[in-house]
Amino acid sequence: MPRTMRVVSLITLFVLSALGVASAQDEPGWAKGRPKANDEAMKMAPVPSFPVPVPADQLPVKKFKLPPGFKVEVWASGVLDARGLRQGEKGNIFVSTIFVANKVYVIPEAGKHEPKTIIDNTPLATGIEFHKGSLYLATNTKIMRYDNVEANLDKLGEPTVIYDKLPGGTDHSWKYLRIRGDKLYYAVGAPCNICDPGEWAKIFSMNLDGSNVETIASGVRNTVGFDFDPKTGHLWFTDNGRDWFSEELPNDELNVVTQPGKQHFGYPFCHQGNIPDPEFGWGKSCNDFQKPAALLGPHAGSLGLKFYTGKMFPAKYQGAMFIALHGPWNRTKKYNGVYVAWPDGKGGAKVEPFMTGFVENNTYLGRPADFLVMKDGSLLVSDDHAHAIYRITYTGK
Amino acid sequence: MKGLAGLALFTATLLALALPAGAQQAKPRGGKPASPAPAENPYPQRFATLCAACHGANGRTDMPGMPVLAGQHMFYAITQLFLFREGRRSNEAMTAIAKGMSDADMQGFANFIATLPPVPAPPPPTPTDAARMKKGAELAKQHKCIFCHGADFAGGQQVPRIAGQREDYLQMSLRGFKAGQRPGYTMAMGEALSQVTPEELDTLAYYAARFPGAVAAEGKAAAEGK
After folding, report:
1. CA–CA min distance A48, chain B (Å)
2. Lower CB count within 10 Å: N or C terminus of chain B?
3. CB atoms A48 and B185 under 8 Å
């Protein structure tokens, strides 16, 4: 996972310093498994985004490459840390943030697309969903609901906390939300790069009031992108593979849940369906775990996932899902982009690049994070590195 | 006396910030000037008015605890202004100063700070403790300081220059990171220090402040004037 910042738990640090403890086993979760003797690996650090947005006229849209007939434009600029995208019933677009801004914005669909902060001073205000007039927000510690938001954009008021038992911490603790059939879906990632995750590393569902938490999938290291196939109802999700195994392995996974609550996707025992973990894989077989539907590339940082439900794009894209590859930080050669995947009907999927050109001289100009399908069928893509939102349309020309 | 003088200075700097700030709000980074003649960059003058009293006109002063800005990088400078502006990094004076800054202001000040060449540290009042320096070098190697800050401790991008930084400021910063009281723009420092003892922190501060070669190298850069 490209933790744009290496985020070690402040709480952990507090406890450690209070106890005066400092030994090898206290190393931060992300560092577990890092080859300490390798200088190249030890130099790698998450790629911080700049705290000032790239001006609209300098955004890299002209460098983006798309299939013939597609166009991309800047839909909103100056959206510091733009991460998750969801839309209200009245057309308002909600934008969450992750490491820099600590905010949630609203951008009205009509007008100049200027972001307005509606929630502030909230670290890891990352997981958002809109449902029946309410905005759901999940941080690393709790899930909240703001009712009747579109009528109260000037002052949202106090939220109702529906769940406050999330484990907090910082490794893989930021959230992604979907609501389907009056159930809220979320995940709690592994609290480390590679470790025994205990009761975590799972996708869960709960009732909308926070009750009745159920396990949907186990052995999921860190998913921050999932959506339901409108045809089958199956939950598809991206999963970020472990760090520090090697430059080229393992791949991030694209997975599909076909038996909710019964499938284990391998972490920490098996990676990408066929590589036993060098530490946790002993005595296990990769065949005991659910195989991925497709591989998404080494350390790809696969984030947002959205099935295309619009009508604007050609028939080929109906039923396909878009996947945001944020791009690796712990790999020497950088790559990223918007990818598209088609379920093959047999539990697998075909994956192709869709929009690339975010990398220049091995440096990120932008990093895609999440999607929104607009009512006219165009596709919004958030970029939490250049701090912008792009709009993709199909014109056929 | 010191407190009063500080307050007066502080008030003066706030006023200095308030006056010219409005004029800059609308000018985006890299935006084309409206008139054929580009407006003069106001930030050297604003730095002189607003920042120099504490940080020094050349980015270095003898004021206790006052960080050296000379030789600092644009990306690092802007992250710190951002953390002050957003109320995350706490320092009464800096929080108040950064509060009114637009993005363009932060960019302007950070750009100007990055033009200040490194200034050599004055000779230390006491002879350098060779054994402590040796220990500092070992610790810097052991805890991989050089991987981000560079073999010359000059930093780069979001990583600050620490060679020749004031020892008291380094000590305060390291202790703050270790205790989780000083937020970084990234969490790199909190993590990097997770295996370092408090005593070792002070040795690292001692070593970086007197970094071997820093004076010579920085003196050369300063002599070249860029």
Report:
1. 7
2. N
3. yes
Question: Which residues span the domain enclosing A356?
Answer: 28-46+57-394
Residues from chain A that touch B150, judged by Cβ atoms under 8 A, are none
Q: Work out the pLDDT band at B34, boundaries 50, 70, 90.
A: very low
Handedness of CA A297, A299, A301, A305 (dihedral sign): positive
Does residue A183 fall inside a structural domain? yes
State residue A374 phi and psi, 5-degree precision: -80, 165
C-alpha distance from B125 to closest chain A C-alpha (Å): 32
Q: Is residue A5 part of a domain?
A: no
- Minimal Cα distance from B177: which residue of A? A13
Q: What residues of chain A lie within 8 A of the CB of B86, using their CB?
A: 102
Q: Residue A69: which residues within 8 A CB-CB, separation 6 or more?
A: A314, A394, A395, A396, A397
Cα–Cα distances in Å, from B85 out to A56, B90, B105, B150?
23, 10, 11, 28
Q: Model-level pTM?
A: 0.87
Q: Across residues A50-64, what is the average pLDDT?
A: 96
Those of residues 32-51 in B touching chain A at CB distance below 8 A are none
Flag if B187 and A7 touch (Cβ within 8 Å). Answer: yes
User: How many whole angstroms separate alpha carbon B222 and alpha carbon B213?
Assistant: 14
For the CA atoms of A41, A194, A242, A32, the dihedral, rounded to the nearest 10 degrees, stands at -10
Q: What is the pLDDT of residues A227-251, one digit of tens each?
A: 999 999 999 999 999 999 999 999 9
Nearest to A8 among B103, B194, B197 (CB): B194
**Helix/strand/coil for A298:** strand
Tell me the torsion sign for CA atoms A355, A357, A359, A365. negative
Which residues sit opposite A337 in a β-bridge? A325
Structure ipTM: 0.85
Which residues from B are below 8 Å from A17, CB to CB?
Answer: 178-180
* Sign of the four-CA dihedral B193, A46, A125, A385: positive
B152-182 pLDDT, tens digit per residue, is: 999 999 999 999 999 999 999 999 999 989 9
Q: Which positions in chain B touch A19 (Cβ < 8 Å)? A: none
pLDDT band at B38, cuts 50/70/90? low
| Total count of domains within chain A | 1
Q: Is residue A15 part of a domain?
A: no
Residues of A at the B interface, defined by Cβ within 8 angstroms: 4-8, 10-11, 13-14, 16-17, 22-24, 26-28, 30-31, 39, 42-43, 45-46, 48, 50-53, 55, 57-58, 99, 102, 121, 170
Task: Please report residues of B whose CB lies closer than 8 A to that of A28.
Answer: 191, 194
Let me know: does A84 contact A176? Beta carbons within 8 Å: yes
Which CATH number is associated with domain B130-224?
A: 1.10.760.10
Cβ of B194 and A30 within 8 Å?
no
Nearest residue to B23 via CA among B78, B105, B88, B126: B105
**Domain CATH number, residue A205:** 2.120.10.30
Note the pLDDT of residue A32: 79
